[in-house]
Specification:
single chain; 435 residues; alpha/beta; Rossmann fold; 2 domains; eight-stranded mixed beta sheet; binds uridine-5'-diphosphate-xylopyranose
Length: 435
C-alpha cells in the first residue's frame, strides 16, 4: 500500500515514519523546501526519542520518502493524510484551518484518480464534512472518500503511542475509506488494539473531548494540591488513593505548575469556542482554561514568596524549560510565564534544559543565562526552581546541590525530590501539594 502524508511537522513525521515501519510505502510532503532537504539528508527537525533511527531505517529500506511534490505523492496513494498545523487563530482562539483547507484544495486539484482523504490534524467538529464538500465541488469527476483519523500521540513517547495505542478512532461514512484504513492499521489489529468506527463529527469530537478531559483531570489534581498544602495533606497519596479506583484511574494525576504543550491549551480553547458557537457552552472546560492560566502565572509568586518576598538582586537557578521532559518543545510551557516574571522582579536567571535551550532563547528575556548542566546552573544560586521533571534532575544528590548553591531555597514545581532528603541537606524545600 502507498500513502501520502501532507505536512512534515510533528504529527506528519511521526505518523509517516510509523506507517512506513508497518510496511507501507509513505511519501511525506511539505512545502518547506529546506525542511525536506534536511530530512532527505537525514536531519530530523524535531526532538522525539527514537524518531531519527526510525526515519533512517525506513528511508534505507526504501519505504519512506520526502518530497515537495504534492501531485506525485498523492497520485500513487491509496490514502492521503492531512497532517498540517491547526494553530489557535489570533484573537479568538478558534483553530486556524487555513492550512487544512489549502492542503485539501491542493490535493484535490492534483488528483488524477479516486482516493481516500483523511484528516489527521486536530480539526474542529464539522471540518471533515467541509473538506468533503470542497472535494465534491473541486472534483465532481472523482470519488474522493473522506475520513477523520485523529492522533493521540504524546510528545516524548509518540512512537510508542503510535505503535501500541489504547485505541484507533476512524470516523467515516464510506465503506471504501473504512476498508483502506483497516488495511493500513492491520498490524494493530494483530495486537488487538480496539478500533472505534464512528461518523465524521463523532471522531472529531472524540479527539477534543479526550484532550479536554485529560486537561480537566490535571487541573483538578492541581487544585486539590493547593488544598493539600492548606490542610496538611499529601497530594501524592490523595492521587494514589483516588486513582486506584478503576473509575478514576491513576494516570494524569500528577500535580504541577499547570499544563502546557502544543495540544491541551490550544485544543481546550478551540473546543470551548466551538461549543459557544453552537450554543452549548462547556463551562467545566472554560474553567479549566482559566484556572490553568492563573496557575502558571501564580508559580512565579510562589518562588518569590519562597525567597522571603523578593528576588531582586538574587540569582535563581532554573532546571527545565520545556513544557514536559523528552521534548524540545517550549509551546505554552509554564517556564514562559515564570521566567520573565522573575527577571522583571529583579532576579538573575541561570537556566538549564537538556533539549529546550535553543527553542527557549528567542522566547525568554535576553538577560537569561544558559548553562552547561544542572550544577552549572545551581552554581552560586540563592534559590533553585524545578520547572520540568527531566530524569537527569531526579538523580541529583541534594548534597551536591547544596555544595554548588550559595543559598538554601529550592522550589520544586514537579515534586522530583524527596522532601526529607532535601531538608536533611539543609534546604528550605517547598514542593506542590506536600506538607
Ligand atoms: C497531549 C495528549 O496526551 C495526547 O494524547 C495528544 O495527542 C496531544 O496532547 P502532549 O501535549 O505531548 O500530549 O503531553 P502530555 O504528556 O499529555 O502532557 C501535557 C501537559 O500536561 C504537560 O505540560 C504536562 O506536564 C502536563 N501534565 C500531564 C501534568 O501536569 N500532570 C499530569 O499528570 C500529566
Amino acid at each position: 500500500m502507498h500513502i501520502a502524508m501532507i505536512g512534515a511537522g510533528y504529527v506528519g513525521l511521526v505518523s509517516g515514519a510509523c506507517f512506513a515501519e508497518f510496511g507501507i510505502d509513505v511519501s511525506v510532503v511539505d512545502k518547506d523546501e529546506s525542511k525536506i532537504a534536511a530530512l532527505k539528508s537525514g536531519r530530523i527537525p524535531i526532538f522525539e526519542p527514537g524518531l531519527d533511527e526510525l526515519v533512517k531505517s525506513n528511508v534505507e529500506d526504501g519505504r519512506l520518502h520526502f518530497t515537495t511534490d504534492t501531485a506525485e505523492a498523492v497520485n500513487k496513494a491509496d490514502a492521503v493524510f492531512i497532517a498540517v498545523g491547526t494553530p489557535s487563530r489570533r484573537g479568538d482562539g478558534h483553530a486556524d484551518l487555513s492550512y487544512v483547507f489549502a492542503a485539501a484544495r491542493e490535493i484535490c486539484q492534483a488528483l488524477t484518480g479516486p482516493t481516500v482523504l483523511v484528516t489527521k490534524s486536530t480539526v474542529p467538529v464539522g471540518t471533515g464534512r467541509k473538506v468533503a464538500a470542497l472535494a465534491k465541488e473541486l472534483r465532481p469527476d472523482l470519488d474522493i472518500a473522506v475520513a477523520s483519523n485523529p492522533e493521540f500521540l504524546r510528545e516524548g513517547s509518540a512512537i510508542g503511542d503510535f505503535m501500541r495505542p489504547d485505541r484507533v478512532v476512524i470516523g467515516t461514512e464510506s465503506d471504501r475509506a473504512r476498508a483502506v484504513l483497516k488495511r493500513l492499521y492491520r498490524p494493530l489489529y494483530l495486537i488487538e488494539t480496539p478500533i472505534v468506527f464512528t461518523g465524521l463529527e463523532t471522531a472529531e469530537l472524540i479527539k477534543y473531548a479526550a484532550n479536554a478531559f485529560l486537561a480537566t483531570k490535571i487541573t483538578f489534581i492541581n487544585e486539590i494540591a493547593d488544598l493539600c498544602e492548606k490542610v496538611g495533606a499529601d497530594v501524592h497519596d490523595v492521587a494514589k488513593g483516588i486513582g486506584l479506583d478503576g473509575r478514576i484511574g491513576r494516570k494524569f494525576l500528577h500535580a504541577g505548575p499547570g499544563f502546557g504543550g502544543s495540544c491541551f491549551p490550544k485544543d481546550t480553547l478551540a473546543l470551548v469556542r466551538t461549543a459557544q458557537d453552537v450554543g452549548s457552552p462547556l463551562r467545566i472546560v472554560e474553567t479549566v482554561i482559566a484556572v490553568n492560566d492563573a496557575r502558571k502565572a501564580a508559580m512565579s509568586e510562589r518562588v518569590i514568596a519562597a525567597c522571603d518576598g523578593s528576588v531582586a538582586g538574587k540569582t535563581i537557578a532554573v532546571l527545565g524549560l520545556t513544557f514536559k521532559p523528552e521534548t524540545d518543545d517550549m509551546r505554552d510551557s509554564p517556564a514562559l510565564a515564570i521566567v520573565p516574571r522573575l527577571v522583571e522582579a529583579g532576579a538573575t536567571i541561570r537556566a538549564y534544559d537538556p533539549e529546550g535551550m535553543e527553542q527557549a532563547r528567542p522566547l525568554l528575556p535576553p538577560e537569561v543565562q544558559y548553562c552547561r548542566d544542572a550544577y552549572d546552573a545551581a552554581s552560586g544560586a540563592d534559590a533553585l526552581v524545578v520547572i520540568t521533571e527531566w530524569n537527569a534532575f531526579r538523580a541529583i544528590p541534594p548534597a551536591r546541590l547544596a555544595q554548588a548553591m550559595r543559598g538554601r531555597v529550592v522550589v520544586d514545581l514537579r515534586n522530583i525530590f524527596d522532601p526529607a532528603a532535601m531538608r536533611e541537606a539543609g534546604f528550605r524545600y517547598s514542593s506542590i501539594g506536600r506538607p
